[in-house]
């Protein structure tokens, strides 16, 4: 009984490690770059040990285009994204919505325009969304990455 408990703990430990670090270093060529989940990495080798370092965030989710460094932002049509790097962890996440003129629209806020259009930025099922309402239609746009953390201030403002 004791052996099986130890084996179960051992196996579950390695299953968790595998889930946390899904990057396969066998195919990693020192000096090469790759992108996974909007994060850009560089492979390295020191003696017999292979590893990778985080270079930045990659809005294109491939090796083309700009690479964002720590705290840099990237605007797409309806959303502002930012890059957060903390040692061996990185997140490319949505920071806020953008209205049709490119102004930041924070989560939990709405903005109306003289033509009757109203834009509302909100979170639903861990996704930041922008609702665009006119007299003729009601559309929802959603960010390409989930909201990784949400802070609700005492005054009710939401910060992501």
From TrEMBL:
Gene: Cnig_chr_X.g22249
Descriptive protein name: Abnormal cell migration protein 18-like fibronectin type I domain-containing protein
Residue span(s) of domain Abnormal cell migration protein 18-like fibronectin type I: 72-128
Leader peptide range in chain numbering: 1-19
Key words of the record: Signal
Top-level taxon in the UniProt lineage: Eukaryota
């Amino acid at each position: 009984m004791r052996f099986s408990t130890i084996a179960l703990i051992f196996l579950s430990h390695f299953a968790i490690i595998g889930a946390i670090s899904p990057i396969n270093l066998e195919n990693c060529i020192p000096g090469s770059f790759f992108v996974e989940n909007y994060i850009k990495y560089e492979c390295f080798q020191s003696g017999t040990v292979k590893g990778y370092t985080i270079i930045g965030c990659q809005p294109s989710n491939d090796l083309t285009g700009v690479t964002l460094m720590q705290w840099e932002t990237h605007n797409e049509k309806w959303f502002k994204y930012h890059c957060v790097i903390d040692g061996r962890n990185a997140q490319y996440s949505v920071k806020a919505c953008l209205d049709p003129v490119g102004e930041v629209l924070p989560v939990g806020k709405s903005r109306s325009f003289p033509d009757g259009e109203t834009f509302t930025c909100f979170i639903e099922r861990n996704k930041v969304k922008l609702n665009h309402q006119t007299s003729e239609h009601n559309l929802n746009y959603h960010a390409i990455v989930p909201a990784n953390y949400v802070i609700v201030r005492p005054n009710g403002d939401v910060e992501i």
